Amino acid sequence: MLEIRGLRHDYAGRTVLSVPAWEVAHGDACLVLGPSGSGKTTLLNVIAGLATPTAGSVRVAGEEVTRLPPAQRDAFRARRIGLVLQTLHLIGVVSVRENLRLAQRLAGRQVDDARIDEVLAGLGIAKLAGARAGEISVGEAQRVAVARAVVNRPSLILADEPTSALDDANCAKALALLLEHAAACGATLLVATHDNRIRERFARRLEL
Questions:
Q1: Angle at 18 between CA 74 and CA 14, to 5 degrees
Q2: Considering Cα of 126, then 128, then 130, then 132, what sign does the dihedral take?
Q3: For the chain, what are the domain ranges?
C-alpha cells in the first residue's frame, strides 16, 4: 500500500525529515512517533501529496504521489486518502452534515446521508449533524474531522494527533472508529501522535 524510498524534506536550509526506506502493507495500522520537530506532520503531508519532498519517492496503492501534477494529486487524495490534520479545516458556516457531504462530493461519490449518520453515531455526535461546524467545541470538531476522514471508506487513513483535544472516553471512541474502519475496509492506517493513551493499540511503529 505505502512504499517510501530515499525520502528527504529540507526547510530553511536544514533537513526536517529523512526516511531512507519504509513500507506499510495493505491493511496495516502503524503509529508514527517522535519528538516535536522530528517531521511527523511533514511525513503525513508528503504522503498525502500536500507537500513535495526535496528528494525521494512515495508510492500509495501503486501510484507515485510525488510525481503527480497538482490537480491529479488532489483528485487522488480525495478518492483514496482520508485525512485528520491538526488544523481541521472544517467549513464553519455550514453544518456538520454538509461538511461530510462535501467530502463525499469531492471524492466523486453520491451523497450518502445514511453513511454520514453511521459514522457520526459511531463517534457519539449524531446530535451535531445539523449544527454549524464553527459553533461546536474543539473536541467535537476533532471528532467531526475523524468522521470526515472515514466517511468515504478510503484505502489509506492519515491521522495527525487525532485524539489530542479529546478526553479519555472520546479518545477511545475516535481511535476505535479509525481502527474499526481500517479493519472493515482493509484500509491502511497511519497515526502520528504524542498521545501515550493510544500507543498500546498499535503493534507497528515508525520512530522519527
A1: 95
A2: negative
A3: 25-52+70-207
Place of cell 508514527: 32
Q: For every one of its 208 residues, what pLDDT tens digit does the chain have, with 9 covering 90 and above?
A: 899 999 999 998 899 999 999 999 989 999 999 888 889 999 999 999 999 999 999 999 889 998 899 999 999 998 899 998 888 899 999 999 999 999 999 999 999 999 999 999 988 999 999 999 999 998 899 889 989 998 999 999 999 988 888 899 989 888 888 888 788 778 899 999 888 888 888 989 999 8
Helix (H, G, I), strand (E, B) or coil at 115: helix
Q: Enter the pTM of the model.
A: 0.86
Contact present, 62 and 2 (Cβ < 8 Å): no
Cα 7 from chain centre: 20
Take residue 86 and report the three cell numbers written for it: 491538526
Domain covering 25-52+70-207: architecture: 3-Layer(aba) Sandwich (3.40)
